[in-house]
Write a structure and sequence with these properties.
Chain A: Keywords: Decarboxylase, Lyase, Pyruvate. Chain A: GO terms for molecular function: sulfopyruvate decarboxylase activity; thiamine pyrophosphate binding. Chain A: This is Sulfopyruvate decarboxylase subunit alpha. The complex is a heterodimer. By secondary structure, chain A is α/β, with parallel strands linked by helices. Chain A has helices at about 5-15, 30-35, 50-60, 75-85, 105-120, 140-150; strands at about 15-20, 40-45, 65-70, 90-100, 125-130, 150-160. The longest helix of chain A has 16 residues, at about 105-120. Chain B is built from eight helices and eight strands; from the N terminus they run H-E-H-E-H-E-H-H-E-E-E-H-E-H-E-H. The longest helix of chain B is centred in the C-terminal third of the chain and has 13 residues, at about 170-184. Chain B is globular, with a radius of gyration of 15 Å. The chains are: A alpha/beta, B alpha/beta. At the A-B interface, strand 2, helix 3 and helix 4 of A face helix 3, helix 5 and helix 8 of B.
């Protein structure tokens, strides 16, 4: 089973049926897999804070949402995380490609990578870091934890987790 | 007519539907005029009323009205293509366009100058877009609800505010009360 299939299987098994995405090269396989699943309504968003608004609405409408985005989005969404998702106590699993880590070919990505965990820590957002493929074995438990505590939860997935950048 | 006049006018029409109301004075005015469990008041997060409303409309079958402002739509312009491409016929976006940032002191917005939000919504692919004058809003909204078609309404009104108290209800109470109304 591919890692993309395993991740989306865990989303479906946890009754997540509304997923918004802002793409990243590392997340392309997961996004393709989400598109292929009839159990999930996939709604691409143009900016990550917009996506968090969509997820807030879907949650209040009775669906379990998730957002898939790049770590640069943490810089975009701090206000939304604090004043919407956290203030109203809503659950939101955030599957995040952790650009700017080991094997990163684009220097600018490092500039947000060095702030990513500090910002999540400052926001008191529970954060998990997937570095090896076997780390994804915890995804099911992380999703259950997210909907148990009604909080945004970050899952950072770095280049080593995704097997590098291929021919880039 | 200013925004609070429009809200007073449409209150009997929106009372029976799910309403997501924009941050600041719009929520405070609606809360003062006609507080309902079916109202979700935004206490923060400028720009996301339309997105929250769309997510809600896509997730369940009851009709949803997002009350937004011109300044808030301008700050989240990406919402219009998302709305256009994810049609929910139980969704109405009502943009109360007074050409100003009302909650912050009536500074002018570009929507009050050259930019037409109705034209932008159409260009983004929204199929049912109606621009109306403030006095027509109630009727246009009733027609849109009856049509069972996703509709974007741009209501042109005067800028100006009434004095209203802030909402002191706890956000989790607002959310819990609203979710119970959604499920009722």
């Amino acid at each position: 089973m591919s890692i993309h299939t395993k991740i989306v299987d865990d989303l479906v098994a946890n009754d997540i049926s509304f997923v918004t995405t802002v793409p990243c090269k590392q997340l392309a396989g997961v996004i393709d897999e989400i598109d292929a699943r009839s159990e999930i309504y996939h709604i691409p968003s143009n900016k990550e804070d917009e996506g968090m608004g969509l997820c807030a609405g879907a949650f209040m409408g009775g669906k379990r949402p998730a957002i898939i985005m790049q770590n640069t989005a943490i810089g975009v969404t701090i206000n939304t995380l604090a004043t919407l998702t956290q203030f109203y106590r809503m659950p939101l699993p955030m599957l995040i490609s952790y650009r700017g880590e080991l094997r990163e070919p684009v220097a600018c990505q490092v500039e947000m990578a060095v702030h990513t965990k500090a910002l999540l820590n400052q926001l008191n957002i529970p954060t998990y870091h997937f570095h090896k493929e076997s780390d994804a074995n915890e995804l099911d438990a992380i999703l259950k934890y997210t909907f148990m505590c009604n909080k945004p939860v970050a899952i950072l997935t770095d280049a080593s987790f995704w097997g590098g950048y291929g021919d880039q | 007519m200013i925004r609070s006049d429009v809200l007073r006018d449409i209150a009997p029409v929106i009372r029976d539907h799910l309403v997501v109301c924009n941050i600041g004075l719009p929520s405070q005015e609606l809360h003062l005029l006609d507080d309902q469990p079916t109202n979700f008041y935004m206490l923060g997060t400028m720009g996301l009323s339309s997105s929250i409303g769309l997510g809600l409309a896509l997730a369940q079958d009851k009709k949803v009205i997002s009350i937004d402002g011109d300044g808030s739509v301008l700050t989240n312009f990406g919402t219009l293509p998302t709305i256009a491409n994810n049609v929910a016929d139980n969704y109405i976006l009502l943009i109360i366009d007074n050409g100003s940032y009302g909650s912050t002191g009536d500074q002018p917005t570009y929507a009050g100058k050259k930019t037409s939000l109705a034209a932008v919504a159409k260009a983004c692919g929204c199929e049912n877009v109606i621009e109306c004058q403030a006095s027509e809003t109630k009727e246009v909204l009733q027609d849109a609800l009856a049509s069972n078609k996703m509709t974007v309404i741009v209501c042109k009104c005067d800028s100006g505010n009434i004095k209203v108290p802030v909402i002191t209800m706890d956000p989790v109470v607002i959310r819990d009360r609203f979710m119970k109304a959604v499920q009722a």
